């Protein structure tokens, strides 16, 4: 999938990663979601003493939902690891929710501070995700 304003999405994901609250892992992640409306929602990871972190993807999804939007076109994940971090299994499943709801695939772009980039679509990252377990 060709994303028009990818450099803007990367900039916003990076800015979000810089706001991550990560006293336990020190592993910063920032996410920018491009919506079908053209709007962009962001989120960073947030860690707690119980070690149950709020993943950046889920923080961004929460922001999008709070903004009244569900139709995610692309997800940019900014991290400082090599290779760049892709969404974990749990986040893939949660993103798939909105792929099902809006009946289209979602682009996933993982990028790091070395400019290494992985571009995939969600259906490649979560084979079988189309099997519905909830009535829609
Ligand atoms: N993390 C994310 O924010 N997204 C992912 O998909 C992978 C992991 C965060 C959670 C935790 O704060 C840190 O990265 C280390 O796992
Ligand atoms: Zn995750």
How would you summarize this macromolecular structure in one to three sentences?
This protein is an alpha+beta fold and 136 residues long. The protein contains four helices and five strands; from the N terminus they run H-E-E-H-E-H-E-E-H.
Question: Can you put this structure into words, describing what you see?
Answer:
The radius of gyration is 14 Å and the shape is globular. The protein has one domain: 3-Layer(aba) Sandwich (Cytidine Deaminase, domain 2), CATH 3.40.140.10. The protein has a five-stranded mixed beta sheet. The mean pLDDT is 95. The protein has 136 residues and is α+β, with helices and mostly antiparallel strands. It is built from four helices and five strands. Strand 1 (29-35) and strand 2 (40-44) form a beta hairpin. The protein has helices at residues 6-17, 56-66, 89-102, 122-125, and strands at 29-35, 40-44, 72-79, 107-112, 117-121. The site of zinc ion (ZN) has 6 residues, from helix 3.
């Amino acid at each position: 999938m060709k994303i028009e304003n990818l450099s803007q999405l990367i900039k916003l994901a990076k800015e979000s990663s810089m706001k991550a609250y990560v006293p336990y892992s020190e592993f910063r992640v920032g996410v920018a979601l491009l919506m079908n409306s053209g709007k962009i929602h962001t989120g960073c990871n947030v860690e707690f003493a119980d070690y149950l972190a709020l993943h950046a993807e889920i923080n961004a999804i929460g922001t999008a939902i709070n903004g009244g939007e569900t139709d995610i076109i692309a997800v940019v994940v900014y991290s400082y690891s090599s290779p760049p971090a892709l969404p974990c299994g749990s986040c893939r499943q949660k993103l798939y929710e909105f792929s099902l709801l809006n009946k289209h695939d979602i682009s996933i772009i993982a990028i790091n501070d070395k400019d290494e980039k992985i571009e995939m679509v969600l259906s490649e990252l979560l084979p079988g995700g189309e099997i519905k377990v909830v009535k829609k």
